[in-house]
Amino acid sequence: MAETQRRPVPRNDGSELDTAMAFLSFARQCVVKKTDGLTEEQLRRGLVESGTTLLGLVHHLTLAERFWFGYHVAGRESDNPGDVGIQVPAGRGAGQVLADYDAAIAASDAAIRSVGDLGESVAIPVEGTFLSVRWVVAHMTSETARHAGHADILREQIDGTTGR
């Protein structure tokens, strides 16, 4: 089967921050790409026993961006969602969920860049430990990439579209 959504991996290798941001952005773009051209019904379609949907993955990643970068890195108490589940709130349309993700990404990127040095500690400790911003970026890159893989499978089940 031809990969119709294939994108090249980043070749950024200038600085630690530039490389880390390039791979985080790449993973985010891979998730969003899986939603392209689908209807509201398709985005909400649960095709696995857990009920995971493409829109639910985007919603979850939005909350995770806010939690890790807004709450832990930037220290904004208002960005602690408590639950970072995959259930999209009733009445929340696909367009709004995707716009929320874009806004969360922009806020996350601003929080990361405001720190500058990935070796700096987070503003709010993670389970009592002041981990580095580097750890948070690595964690969210792996989390987002993992969910991009889930999104790949869901998208292929919906309409056969493949690629990263």
In a nutshell, what does this entry contain?
With 164 residues, the protein is an all-alpha fold. Helices cover 55% and strands 0% of the residues. The longest helix is centred in the last third of the chain and has 27 residues, at 133-159.
Shape: globular
State which percent range the strand residues make up: under 5%
Q: Helix share of residues?
A: 55-70%
As residue ranges, the low-confidence spans are: none
How many strands in all? Answer: 0
Largest sheet: none
Distance between the termini: 13 Å
| Gyration radius, in Å | 16 Å
Q: Mean of residue pLDDT?
A: 93
Structural class: mainly alpha
Note the total helix count: 5
- Sketch the topology as an H/E string, one letter per element: HHHHH
Organism: Streptomyces lunalinharesii
Protein name: DinB family protein
InterPro entries: DinB/YfiT-like (IPR034660), MST-like (IPR007061)
Structure report:
The chain has 164 residues and is an all-alpha fold. Helix content is 55%, strand content 0%. Helix 1 packs parallel to helix 5 and helix 3 runs antiparallel to helix 5. The chain is globular, with a radius of gyration of 16 Å. The relative contact order is 0.20.
Which features does this protein show?
about 160 residues; globular
SSE topology sketch:
Blueprint: H1 16-33, H2 40-43, H3 54-73, H4 94-115, H5 133-159
Helix pairs in contact: 1-4, 1-5, 3-4, 3-5
